[in-house]
Amino acid sequence: MKIAEIRELATNELAERVQTEIANYNQMVLNHAISPLENPMQIAKLRRTIARMKGELRRRELNK
């Protein structure tokens, strides 16, 4: 997800999306520990997306 797409989301929708992405990330890491993923770079990509979302939430919080 690109930063432009993240900025278009409403704050409450973004917060919910962060929670679901974190759950997906944890599940992906667990699955990778049991049997390796085809593309382990998906984990890093998802981690970066979560960081972008959290950064945008923090930016909005500070701008209030």
Give the low-confidence spans.
none
Number of domains: 1
Q: SSE string, helix = H, strand = E?
A: HHH
Percentage beta strand? under 5%
What gap, in angstroms, lies between the N and C termini? 24 Å
Number of strands: 0
User: What composes the largest sheet?
Assistant: none
Report helical residue fraction. Answer: over 70%
Structural class: mainly alpha
Mean pLDDT: 96
What is the radius of gyration computed over CA atoms, rounded to a whole number of angstroms? 13 Å
Shape: elongated
Please work out how many helical segments DSSP would assign: 3
Brief digest:
This protein is mainly alpha-helical and 64 residues long. The protein has three helices and no strands.
Structure description:
- Keywords: Ribonucleoprotein, Ribosomal protein.
- Helix content is 83%, strand content 0%.
- With 64 residues, the chain is mostly helical.
- The chain has one domain.
- The relative contact order is 0.17.
